[in-house]
Task: structure prediction
Amino acid sequence: HRERIRSVLGASQIMPVITIKHPDDAVPLCQALFEGGIRVMEITLRTEHGLRAIESVREALPEAWVGAGTVTCIAQYRQAEAAGAQFIVTPGVTKALLDFALTSEAALLPGVSTASELMLGYGLGYREFKFFPAEVAGGVPALKAFSGPFPDAAFCPTGGIRRDTARGYLDLNNVQTVGGSWLTPDDAVAAKDWAKITEIALGSLRDIS
Ligand code: 3PG
Result:
């Protein structure tokens, strides 16, 4: 379980948070990100197209890690796993979800924003977390503060992070990957400007290197 999440986080410094508005966009959009060097993608269940998108992107990009985001209950967890999601991202935690995830194949990256939520996950053996919503929950200083009481916890911050603020998070010892929707701006996706998506991915990876 932890090994899977560590492989996912180790595969990319940037994890795009992707919300599919038109089902036909899923594959070309993710292919464009892959061409731009992105190896990990989180496809949210915020639209009715999320599950089908996960299925088709898994098939089209067998070399990428494809996860489901915005999973908030066990029923969605099961559906995402059945669609082929290799990992699951939640915006927050419940004891029920944390327990369920330990018995499932798709590994969980649980969302936390407080020390209490961290303690809940920590007690069950979790050491990798999503820090959400990163910018409003304290940003870089909050993650620095967490490294005191939770020295072996690693975080993937998301929520309000942009191309020019990603580096500040990645400079922290407890951050290896940052997530965000800045890689898939609405206007470029609506215009099906896949070359632009590849360019943003390449530019973002260049900026943080
Ligand atoms: C998430 O679920 O991780 C966020 O919606 C991504 O946040 P952003 O849209 O502010 O990048």
Remarks:
- The beta strands are 14-18, 40-44, 65-69, 87-89, 107-109, 111-112, 128-131, 154-157, 178-180.
